């Protein structure tokens, strides 16, 4: 995919997230590797619903701006994850309603915020680790995500939102959508007796993905 095609896809996906209520105002950011040395990132303060191809930020792996506007302040953690995990090619960070609500709950399992009750959760991300609360833009978020970059595809930032990775921007977006739907089901089922997948059922799904 050419640089222009990646930029057009980012604008398209950003608008889709915004129009479906996955993002409001200037919240959230997206990124994708263009090659080994360059990353495309949404600009600082930009609404995902009003992105412009010519204003998207292109950075080198040291964070220097090569094209476009100043990048999101959270581009720091995007770059850290790309440096640490060469298989990570795209990142979606959103403050979508149900996942953000989940991030505000006390007592979440730090190794997996939601115990699996659908096979799609397992097949898409496997598990979702919880990152302790830090203020948005804090370098500690980048450090925490860098340390975990090789151990998962999805990370819940406490009292903040979700960070989801993928093989490309479409894959990261699909992973995010599946997670948000799973969180919605989680809250819908509150007060009901949930039938969680057994350890054997989870292992079977994991093995089929290898």
TrEMBL record:
Catalytic reactions of this protein: 3-dehydro-4-O-phospho-D-erythronate + H(+) = dihydroxyacetone phosphate + CO2; 3-dehydro-4-O-phospho-L-erythronate + H(+) = dihydroxyacetone phosphate + CO2
Q: What InterPro entries does the annotation carry?
A: Aldolase_class_II_sugar_metab (IPR050197), Aldolase_II/adducin_N (IPR001303), Aldolase_II/adducin_N_sf (IPR036409), OtnC (IPR050013)
Q: Source organism lineage?
A: Bacteria, Pseudomonadati, Pseudomonadota, Gammaproteobacteria, Pasteurellales
- So what does this one do? Catalyzes the decarboxylation of 3-oxo-tetronate 4-phosphate to dihydroxyacetone phosphate (DHAP) and CO(2).
GO cellular component entries? cytosol
Against PANTHER family, the record matches this protein to: 3-OXO-TETRONATE 4-PHOSPHATE DECARBOXYLASE-RELATED, FUCULOSE PHOSPHATE ALDOLASE
What keywords is this UniProt entry annotated with?
Answer: Carbohydrate metabolism, Lyase, Metal-binding, Zinc
SMART domains noted in UniProt: Aldolase_II
Single GO BP term: pentose catabolic process
What is the annotated signal peptide range for this record? Answer: none
What is the recorded name of this protein?
A: 3-oxo-tetronate 4-phosphate decarboxylase
Q: Which organism is it from?
A: Mannheimia succiniciproducens (strain KCTC 0769BP / MBEL55E)
Task: Tell me the cofactors it needs.
Answer: Zn(2+)
